[in-house]
Amino acid sequence: MTAADAPSTDAGPRAAVLVTGTEILGGWVTDRNGPWLARRLGTLGVRHVTTVAVGDRPEDLLGTLEGLAARGIDLIVTSGGLGPTEDDLTTETVAAFTGRPLALDEALEGRIWDRVLAYVRRVASTGPTDLDALRAANRKQALVPEGATVLEPIGTAPGLVVPGEHGPGRAGVPTVVVLPGPPRELRPMWTAVEEGDLLAPVLGGAVRRGESTLRLFGIHEAQLADLLRDARRDGVPLDRLEVTTCAHRGELEVVTRWDPADAAAATALEEHLASHAPRALYSRDGRGVAEHVLDLARERGWTVATAESCTGGLVAAALTDVPGSSAVVHGAVVAYDDAVKRRVLRVDGGALAEHGAVSATVARQMARGALDALRVDVAVATTGIAGPDGGTAEKPVGTVFLAVATRDGRDEVRHVSIPGDRASVRERTVTSALHLLRRVLTEP
Amino acid sequence: MTAADAPSTDAGPRAAVLVTGTEILGGWVTDRNGPWLARRLGTLGVRHVTTVAVGDRPEDLLGTLEGLAARGIDLIVTSGGLGPTEDDLTTETVAAFTGRPLALDEALEGRIWDRVLAYVRRVASTGPTDLDALRAANRKQALVPEGATVLEPIGTAPGLVVPGEHGPGRAGVPTVVVLPGPPRELRPMWTAVEEGDLLAPVLGGAVRRGESTLRLFGIHEAQLADLLRDARRDGVPLDRLEVTTCAHRGELEVVTRWDPADAAAATALEEHLASHAPRALYSRDGRGVAEHVLDLARERGWTVATAESCTGGLVAAALTDVPGSSAVVHGAVVAYDDAVKRRVLRVDGGALAEHGAVSATVARQMARGALDALRVDVAVATTGIAGPDGGTAEKPVGTVFLAVATRDGRDEVRHVSIPGDRASVRERTVTSALHLLRRVLTEP
Description:
By secondary structure, chain A is of the alpha/beta class. The first copy, chain A, has 16 helices and 18 strands. Chain A has three domains: 10-203, 3-Layer(aba) Sandwich (Molybdenum Cofactor Biosythetic Enzyme, Chain A); 210-283, 2-Layer Sandwich (Alpha-Beta Plaits), CATH 3.30.70.2860; 289-442, Alpha-Beta Complex (Maf protein).
């Protein structure tokens, strides 16, 4: 992964994300808000300097806020710590940090209480509910620092925009946007903040940036670096763009961001990659390979199945992860045991004995067997050695055969060698299988 | 998620994790090192105060190191930024931060070069390799801050332990452990540091803590909170333990840590949960439900299959994620389309018409069909509405039926209602299906 120049964000406001919660700090729960907010900040025209995780201790939260302010951060976005329990202390701490007294917003308290009552009625909790205690706990969520703007709750916790002091001679107090921890609440709330004008004072003249995501498969990172160097040589003004390249599950992702004035440079880069790596560049709109496969099949009116050995169901799982996939994906056979390969997929016992289960012949027969057993138009098969055991000198761990067969009699087989552990081999086999399927579906 | 008292870590040394890399800060790549190090620090007898992510800019890294030192952090563990390229600047920056000049370790340079050559030969890179440029770039990785201890490279990047100044009147300079970014290099390197005596000056009298993980299924967080309150009332000295409870994929995890002197308190808590929630507490050794299912089947000499609709292969994928599962798991049928349910799993067309695909009857027939089609001893089936479309008033999104059938004629069916989006419904259905399978496998 490399990041090229990011000239236009250097001068603008600087931002930090502050994720709270003992469960995230302690490594018990994966933080989904930090990465999401980072990507959103990247198009806002601010420079995202750091993401910090702290636990539920107010002194750690306060120390971090003060440290970020001391480093000249203009915008802090916090996630979590807005619940009704006593270890939810973000609002109190932000109020102390900004020197703004808290006051009860009675109308807000009423709106929160309506939401809590609706929730209590819906979940019909297991024991008797102490409504008075609940109401007292929820009152805390309606405390608002003086001068802050309330962001209407999506769950029961409201968010806040606490204005800072910005502009010449007034720097030093960052604007703090306080958001709830659940991603389904945080995301729409942040989107509303971005679309409104509450951040205008801190954003100043920062302009919203354009962003595009290109996905490539079948080339190495070094080859992509060469392509970018060639693009620069051929006159693509790369220094006007912020280009991030990143390897992910066996694919390469190129994310480009630009100031509105430089949109033509982004288009020129995209066209350069499209003309110099036409086979590798498969997605220009952010859609992943599973979505491409499903859309290509839908266009042809084709149905799809998988026959999986080493991937154990992951190819089917990747396809059916996409909403609406049931119109295209009819099913899958996971044939982990050779008896299942023979009986359900009609793989020939002689082929298994002669070539072994991990072979081009067996992969082809598995794909064709799935076509017949599940009566679909196209099927993809995987067979390989995921490890850690089962490797031999001739077929080491990572040896994988892929095949696609179509109702109209075509088939394609691939042999790939995948480095890494069991999880990597399985994951990259899924990617390779979906790309083989995509290739076949794009042929005339 | 709640964390009970953590009395014994308060007085000890304070630690921070510092994760570097534009790809992690920007949200492009999931950080796997921060959470892993957090859990390890939790048993080391230090208080882990914060995890900070920064990009590849040295001024941001330096500013963060200084900020952590100013807040009295005693131990900083960094990950990443140790490669040969020019944006890998962690060692240089840590040297500047600690005021220790860098010197070339020639013997180390030779050892790194041997590793690079071996790697170049193994991967047989696509273009001609410029060995001189490579050697010059790799020299940088052999620069060592004065007084630091080198941690032998596992890939090509060595780690470092840069000693701080600790003890009465000498505080203010934290010890910095510098580790490479790839988890397969970072983890063994950190484990070696933990097991050696390089951290003795910063750890002082901190004692290594015990840790246990208990897993429960089938009770709510509020019920677990009640169980813990009852345990305290019944004399379990909970205030001697650090207890973290966390909901995860529909299960509850209880992680307990203790000072060696308080091991009996941890045992008392475990016994309390075992006697008051015997059905819910299914794992006392950290093994997950898939491993339990596989071990239980192996003990009986039984083979396993799945028949999946809404989970689309995820149950089979979860089972086959475990190394060695191929001895137990024979295969799976993903029957997304009703025609596959009928043809491959022999689900009765009348049952489909009368009850619908999402019904107890069809779930039972799917499990029994997988038993016959794949010739195994036990099979689990899933059918449900994962959403976002397909829900009705009678069967809203999240309606799921699960069934297990055994060769010796037993079957069990469950109806569950799962809240959340498509990914949550699929994920929790997998957990519930594996637990139903586990229950049946534990019956005499």
